[in-house]
Structure formats: C-alpha cells, structure tokens
Automatic annotation (TrEMBL), chain A:
It is found in: Cell membrane. Belongs to the binding-protein-dependent transport system permease family. GO terms for cellular component: plasma membrane. The chain crosses the membrane at residues 20-49, 84-103, 115-135, 172-195, 216-236, 270-293. Residues 78-289 form the ABC transmembrane type-1 domain. It holds the Pfam family BPD_transp_1. It comes from the Bacteria. Its main location: membrane. It is a multi-pass membrane protein. One of its GO terms (biological process) is transmembrane transport. Keywords: Cell membrane, Membrane, Transmembrane, Transmembrane helix, Transport. It comes from Paenibacillus abyssi. This is Sugar ABC transporter permease.
TrEMBL record, chain B:
SUPFAM superfamilies: MetI-like. PANTHER family: ABC TRANSPORTER PERMEASE PROTEIN MG189-RELATED, ABC TRANSPORTER PERMEASE PROTEIN MG189-RELATED-RELATED. Residues 68-258 form the ABC transmembrane type-1 domain. Belongs to the binding-protein-dependent transport system permease family. It is found in: Cell membrane. InterPro entries: MetI-like, MetI-like_sf. It comes from the Bacteria. GO terms for biological process: transmembrane transport. The chain crosses the membrane at residues 7-26, 67-93, 105-127, 133-154, 175-201, 237-258. One of its GO terms (cellular component) is plasma membrane. The keyword Hydrolase does not apply. This is Sugar ABC transporter permease.
Amino acid sequence: MVKDSGWPVKRRKWNAEMWVGYGFIFPTMAAFLVFSLIPTIGVIILSFFDWNMINTPVFLGFENYIEMFSRSEFWHSLWVTVQYVLYSQVTKIILALSIALALNQKLPGMKLFRIPIIMPWIVMPIAVGIVWKWILSPSTGLLNYYIQQVGLPTVTWFSPGNVLQSIALVDVWQYFGFTTVLFLIGLQGISPMYYEAASIDGANKWRSFWHITLPLLRPTFLFVLVTAVIGSFQVFDIVYATTQGGPGALSKVYYYLIYEKGFQQLQMGYASALSVFLFVVLMIMTMIQLRVFRDNQ
Amino acid sequence: MRTAGNMIAYLVGIMASIFAIFPFLWMVSTSLKPQNEIFKFPPEWISSEVTLQSFLRVWQSMPFDRYAFNTFIVTAVILAGTLVFASIAAYSFARLRYPGRDKLFVVLLASMMIPKIVTMIPVYIMMRELGLIDTYAAIILPLVFAEAYEVFLLRQFFATIPGEMEESAKIDGAGIIRTFLTIIVPMSKPILATLTVLTVVKSWNNFLWPLIVTSSESKYLLSIGLANLNGQNTSDWAGIMAASFIALLPILAIFAVAQKYFVESIQLTGLK
C-alpha cells in the first residue's frame, strides 16, 4: 500500500463548495453539450453524407461541397444576402448615428425618445413583416398613398427591381432604434473635455465631429457593424413573411436556402454543407469582432 | 443658433418616433375597420365605424386561443428554466471555487460563436429520434437550460456584488445555497428583470425552430398561426392585422410597464 501515499496529497477533498459548484453548472453545461457541441460536430459529419431522413445515409466525401460550390443557387443566395446586408446595414447605421447625434443633446425630455424608437425591436418579426407587407402594398398601401400625396411616383414594392431594398426597409425599421441606443451609449462615453478643448482651439462643430466624435466612436461602430452583419446574415422571418424568397428566387437569402434544402426537400447532407459554410463565414466575423473588441479594451 | 439646433434635435426625435410608431397605429387602425372599408381611398386613420368583427373572424377561422395558450406555456416554461438555470450557473461561475471552473466558463462562452442554424439540423434529427417532434418539449428543450450569453450576463453582475455580505451570512451559519437565495438573489432583482424581458421576447417571437418541429395545429405558436394566415394570400387585411395585433399585444403590454429594463438590456448588449 505504499503506492497510495503518492496521490491523495494532490487530490483535493470533495467539499460542499465543489459539489454545489459542479451541480449548479451541470444543467447549462449538459445542455451546451447536447444542443451545441455535439450538433456542431454532427453537422460537420452529416455534410459528408447524402441523407433524406428515410434511406440509410451514403458517404459522399466532399461531394456535397463540390456540388455546393458548382451550383449557381449557392452563389446566388450568397450574393443576395451580401446585397441585403449592405442595403440594410448602411442605411441603418447612417440613420441611427444621425438620430443618436440629435438625441445626445442635453435637453429636457430627450431621453423619452428612446422609448418609442426601441418598440419595433421587441416585436415578433413575422408580424412586423406582415404589417409592412400591408403598408407597402402597391396599389392600396399607406406608404404609396403618402408618396403620391407629396407628388412622387408610386413604388411597386417587393417587385424584381427592389425586393431586397424593400425587405431591408423593414429590417431598418425594426432595428434602427436599437442601434441608435447603442450609439447613444457610445456617445455618452466620450468625455466632454475633448469638446471643450476643441472649442478653445476654435474648432467648429463639424470639425469636432470628424476629429473627436467619429474616432472615439470607433469601438461602438465596429461592434454595431459586426453584430449587425452577423445578425442580418441570418435573416429569415421577415423574408418568410413578405416574399418567401420571391419573386422567382430574387430574395432567396442564404438562410432561406438552408431551410428549403433541409426542411422542405430533406437534403440533410447538402443542407449541412451549406450550414457549415455559413458557420465558417460567421466564425471568421466573430473572431474579427473579438479581436477588435480586445484591441479596444 | 443654439435654439435652432435644439429645434432640430427635437424634430429628429419626433420624426424618428413617428417612423417607429406609425406601423403599430396603422395595424390597430386597420384591425378595427369593417372589412369593406379596408381599401377605401384615400386611406382613413380612424374609420367612421369602429368594430371588433375582424378579431372574431380570425378567431373563428383559426384556433388563435390555442396558439396563444401554446405560446404562453412555452414562454412561461422557458422563462422559468432560464431564470433558475442561468442564475445558479452564473453564481457557480462567479463565486464558488472548484477545479476547472474558469476553463469550463470559457468553453461555455465559446458556444456563443455557434449560430443556431448550424445546430438546427442535428438537433432536429435528435428530436425525431427521441420521438419529440410535434411536442412542446421539442420547442422548449433547446432553450430552457439557459444559453451562454444569459449566464454571462448574470455572472458579470454577480461578480460586482461585494463579498462581505456573503461572508457575514456564512458566519451566521448559512450554507452556500441559503446564501445564494437570501443574499444574492434579492440583490439581483434588476438584472433578473432584464433577463426576464429578454427571455420573454425571445421565446414569444420564436418562429423558425417551432415551425420546423411542430406539424399539428394543436401545437402551433402564434407566430406560426400568423404566418399561415398570411400564407393563405387573402386580401382580408383587417383580419390579418387583428391577428398580428393579438400576437404583439402581450409583448407591448410588458414593454409598457418595463421599458426601463429593455433600454438597460441594450446597454448590457453593448458592453458584451
């Protein structure tokens, strides 16, 4: 029994704190294992198979990926998503920053404006899509009525020429307030000393905006940009409610393609390959975000 | 100059608010109109006749009471689970000492990088193998044990609570669980309220996952019922707006009493 003397020295006793400690994290960690980690490995494995959920899976090697990269629908969806991200994000960021600059004035009641503008952010995207479909209805919609009232030509929303812009408009409406509040938080983190120093140096408002506000807002900018891009790469509900990917496949965003391949056509292997590709893209963007965030700490 | 600037600031605030709110008002306005006045030109914000018949009509065409009940049950269970599991896990990560704690926390945080779509196909297959397709369990299970960012949110808050309070409770002979329940939880009401609003919104509005795992009307959530009504391509906009109104009302009601926590939750997102 000489051997035994060696290791109890290092081994800590299981005290109450350890039991409770592990016990308290157990449900969340187990769920992480079952619903995140194992499925992530699963989707990678599945992407090498052909499986329609009925027959036995057939191993294909990289064939799903080869097929994916050679199909125009993949490139089309990717391109549609990128365009959509550009339309929605550029508009949203410009709008949100402008509103945040206005609401950042130290004036009575300014804080109250935050309440209405974040209301769209909390409501069901499916309902949002539906309500906007009604507002943007080409012949009987409210918006075209007002467009007509101010003497502009009416717009056939969700038509081939503007379907992505139409969906982007709905997205901008839903999230501009959220983004505005993020910018406001960023703006409030800038010390007034900078502006005082600048005005002593005779800088006008425009110059201090360019040389103080924008550079110091950089962390907020990057955070907003990266999270919003990641978020809108995963747009689905609004598309489902408004166009279902149409007309034709003109608004078939990437997420919609995965849904269609996986859950409507039951091409589980192919849909998994599509998911893995998206995962890699989003992972790269998340890493950029983390890197940027760390640099700003 | 000063006043002109102030005027512009107020004007921007008012215009942004109108932009944010008019779709809600138009939804309510349309839902209260009789069907034959929907396409009236020019459009009227307040119709001469205010009626609730559209609500009755959609209620009769689809079991919206069932959908509302399902959505409520699913949301309530997810909320209860999230509050309990996120707070005990967060307390453990913030305060208790045991080997491997910080490594496990980093592993959990890494899961925030995994988007839902990646896990969706395998989790669906898993649910099918377990015979859980078309049950509440399939909707609830992936969310009820709290997600990484929820644990993270609470852990950051718990870490700011001064340790002396727990020390004095310990001296009085309270165990770990007692200390957690009598000291930490009461001090964490604001963050728990924030977590509550975030979780309720998330599970109330949930759409794609419930769409995939449910197939019978008796299990549909409001979001799915609404999407189906919309998919019928009717021109009954009054009915569709009434259904949308029903789906949004509970969240808007929570917002009315707890906007403060919604604004705070954005603040926490920004700090992430």
